[in-house]
Amino acid sequence: MNTLNTSFEWTNRRLFFSPQRDASLDWMDAFAQGPCVLERDTYLRIYFSCRPKPIDGRYVSHSGYVDVAKEDFSILRVSERPILELGARGTFDEFGVYPFSAIEVGDEVHAYYGGWTRTVSVPFNVNIGKAISRDGGRTFERVGPGPILSYTLDEPFILSGPKIRRFHDTWVLFYIAGREWIMDGERPEPVYKIRLATSKDGVTWVKAGRDLIESVLPNEAQASPDVFYEEGRYHMFFCYRDATDYRKNPERTYRIGYASSPDFLHWTRDDDVMKFSRTESGFDDEMVAYPHTFTLNGKRYLLYLGNEVGREGFGIAERKEGAR
Amino acid sequence: MKWKKLGHIFDPAPYGFFGEYSSFAQSPQALVFEDFVRIYFSTREPDGDMFKSHVRYVDMTRDFDIIDVSTDEIIPLGKRGTFDEHGIFPFHVTRTRDGLYGYTSGWSRRDSVAVETGIGLSVSRDEGETFERLGDGPVLSASIEEPFLVGDPFVVTREQYYMYYIYGTTWKEGPDGVQERTYKIALATSEDGQTFKRHGRIVSDTIADESQALPTVFEADGRYHMIFCFRDTFGFRTDPLRGYRLGYAYSENLLDWTRDDAALGFERSSDGWDADMECYPHVFEWGGRHYLLYNGNEFGRHGFGVAILEDV
């Protein structure tokens, strides 16, 4: 059932930024994951996370940006170096900074990011860190060596995928929290759910302590809660997948879902509102994942990842005129 | 202060906790009943070339004669990927207004360093025979200024909960290439024993790169007393001068602490099971007397002993 008299239909979809095609940096060998737009005067700065070639089969993730002109989305420049160094030995973000969500706060840019560590019984754990830029979003310094959100009784591991928003006087951090590791043959795969925390000052966070989005699959994993306000209500694009056999199987891998809310706390899921699925052939013919939406000159755009969760880069689509 | 050593009271060797292997009874912690005391400890299960620590207990008489030793699981280790899946050590049991709580120091293995830890919470509804965790995650773990190795909880319940614990400050590579950790004692307070407000460090250092561990707090003679153990960051496993010894601090209000190791009055033994190391202290009150449980050489490989407070 469609609870809204609207739908989100998209056109002119294409691969937008690809490390392999558009950059030649060792630390940006492949992947452009978790795109996040920060609007500047004449251009858009799009943060994303990428990887150098793996060592002994294992990756680290760095975060960087690409600046594109507002008028024609042409690429102006790519960050020369990672915008935040990896964490010190033994810290939560020693092996990756991914994904990266930035917001302007006065003269500063504040970023919330997933920090990756390597574990033994399962491949990794993630926690959410915070970093601040005082040079317009070119480089960042972490606010401390540890994470800003702690694991708790009902959020035991994998706090990741932060998306920072400010609605009225409240900071809202949407994120995912791990629930369970499920064995797919020999390989442990994580199940995680979309949650939120709120803050008055961006320093002290209060967790809501519940799942925001009802699951539709058994052991469904949810990610990339991308929330915006439009026409009197809050909208969330997110992605979801089955727990196992999801990496290449189009029937079980990431799809994009939708939910709406009157208050950003209570959500009604209605995936049919979001009209966006994989293509017949191309970089996104297996999956569409990790949505991020923004508007420019009154027009809404969708950034997203394709196959292998953004190995070739991220794509863009435009909202169809007159579709609402 | 003056402590009189009553000797070595528990050796894990005869009990076959893990078949052939029966070593380590670490961090003894007491739960006092009317006519016996239940002393929880962590013992090690071999796991490849590593170990997993599990909680067991021994019930003892007032003369510290053994009544019974637990053989069943008191609290299982955590699920795959959780903070306490590779061990629980120490295990701190305390009666609170909210129930008989068991705070855990949970261990999980890491790749670039050996471990990470967090503090979990479990509750017993059978007088301490078994404990059930309140959730798969911890109640206290890494934060912005306390980046890793949150552990060693000890809780004092007054008008609120006061949790004394440790957190890691650095991992540093030693002369032998091993990554070694440094940690410090800190305080957090809580209204419900589950959600904590942090207050930061509370015990000053006396040596460079000092690691402080396992605070235990008690009230005597109108003042609060804390005993803990401390060591150098490097060389502490084999060099008695760098290894764990006991430290001491006092406080009037449970918040502000003054360190004064010389006032502890606990002399190192010249030979025997605790001559090279003293660690993991735990003080409890029973029948108007204060007792100090502690581990000796090799971090408690051969069990623990007890001392009695003779003069505050």
Could you outline the blueprint of secondary structure elements for this entry?
The complex is a heterodimer of chains A (324) and B (312).
Chain A: E1 8-17, H1 19-22, E2 30-39, E3 43-51, E4 62-69, E5 75-78, E6 97-105, E7 108-118, E8 124-133, E9 141-142, E10 157-167, E11 170-184, E12 187-199, E13 206-207, E14 221-230, E15 233-241, E16 255-261, E17 268-269, E18 274-275, E19 289-296, E20 299-305, H2 307-310, E21 314-319
Chain B: E1 2-10, E2 26-32, E3 37-47, E4 50-60, E5 66-69, E6 88-96, E7 99-109, E8 115-124, E9 132-133, E10 148-157, E11 161-173, E12 179-190, E13 196-201, E14 211-220, E15 223-231, E16 245-251, E17 258-259, E18 279-286, E19 289-295, H1 297-300, E20 304-311
Antiparallel strand pairs in B: 1-20, 2-3, 3-4, 4-5, 6-7, 7-8, 8-9, 10-11, 11-12, 12-13, 14-15, 15-16, 16-17, 18-19, 19-20
Structure description:
The complex is a heterodimer of chains A (324) and B (312). Chain A is mainly β and 324 residues long. Chain A is 2% helix and 51% strand. Chain A has helices spanning 19-22, 307-310; strands spanning 8-17, 30-39, 43-51, 62-69, 75-78, 97-105, 108-118, 124-133, 141-142, 157-167, 170-184, 187-199, 206-207, 221-230, 233-241, 255-261, 268-269, 274-275, 289-296, 299-305, 314-319. In chain A, strand 4 (62-69) and strand 5 form a beta hairpin. The model of chain A has no long low-confidence stretch (mean pLDDT 96). Chain B is mainly β and 312 residues long. Chain B has a single domain, classed as Glycosyl hydrolase domain, family 43 (Tachylectin-2, Chain A, 5 Propeller). The longest helix of chain B is centred in the C-terminal third of the chain and has 4 residues, at 297-300. The radius of gyration of chain B is 18 Å and the shape is globular. The termini of chain B are close together. The model of chain B has no long low-confidence stretch (mean pLDDT 97). Chain A binds chain B through residues 88-92, 94-95, 117-122, 125, 127, 130, 143-148, 150-157, 178, 180-181, 188, 190, and chain B through 78-83, 85-86, 108-113, 116, 118, 121, 134-149, 168, 170-171, 179, 181, 194.
